[in-house]
Amino acid sequence: TLGLPNDYDANYVTAIYTGMRDLAARFNVSIVGGETTTNPERLLINIALIGSVPRGQQVLRSGAFAGDALFVTGELGGSLEGRHLEFQPRLAEAIWLREHFEIHSMIDLSDGLAGDLKHLLKTGGIGAELLESSVPISRAAKARFREGKSSKPALLAALTDGEDFELLFTVASKDAVPMLDGFRGAFPDVKLSCVGRITSTPGLGISSSNGTRDLVAEGYSHFSNN
Fold first, then answer.
1. Lower Cβ count inside 10 Å, N or C end of the chain?
2. What pTM was estimated for this model as a whole?
3. CA gap 128, 70 in Å, rounded
4. Cα 95 from Cα 100, distance rounded (Å)
5. CB contact at 8 A, 198 and 125
6. Residues 73-93: pLDDT tens digits?
7. How far is the CA of 148 from the CAs of 119, 127, 152, 181, in angstroms?
8. pLDDT tens-digit profile of 134-146?
9. Are 206 and 215 in contact (CB under 8 A)?
10. Which of 134, 132, 197, 205 is nearest to 171 (CA)?
C-alpha cells in the first residue's frame, strides 16, 4: 500500500519502485497487487511479504535441547543509527546452515536478543544462559551510549534493541566447532558468535566474571507505554 501526500514528487515515487524492483530481483521476490491512496501528512508504505519452505526442510523456533550451543550472526544493538533500514537479510546464511548441519531451532532477532531468545524456550523444561563477554555488541550501540544519544549501556542495547534482523539459533554442542569453522569459510564477512547454551533449568541467565545472574532485561515491546 502506498499513501502519498498531495505534494508528492513523482520522481521520488519512481525511485522507490526502482529500489523495490531491484531488491525483489536480488531475492527472487515478485511484487504483486497493492493499493495507492492519499495520506495528507506524509509518505506511507506498507508491505506484506509471504514465502514458502519445502516440506520437511523448515527450521522452527521450537526444537532446542538442553546442552545445545547458542549462536548469533552479526553484531547487535544500535540499529537506530540506520542499520534497521539497510540490513542484509541472512537468507543465504540460513539456507547454508540448514543444508550443512542439523539446526535444532532458529529465529531472527527483530525484538532484541533478550526478548526473542525466550521464543526458543517456550517448548518448556529448558532455559538459557548467555555469556556476557561473548555478546557481539555493535560499534553503533557503543557510540550511541558514549555520545549520549541513548541512556542504554552498550550491553543492554545489544540485549534489548529491536530490528537487528540477525539469526539466533541452536545446534548440538558436538557440531558447534565444525559449524563455526565451516561458516567462517563460507561467509568470511559475517561474524558468528557462540553467545551461550541451552540449559535444563527453566529461566534466562547471563554469566560474567562476577557469577551468573537472572536476565531481567526485556526485548522491544510493541505495546509498551514507554
1. C
2. 0.90
3. 9
4. 9
5. no
6. 999 999 989 888 888 899 999
7. 32, 34, 9, 38
8. 999 999 999 999 9
9. yes
10. 197
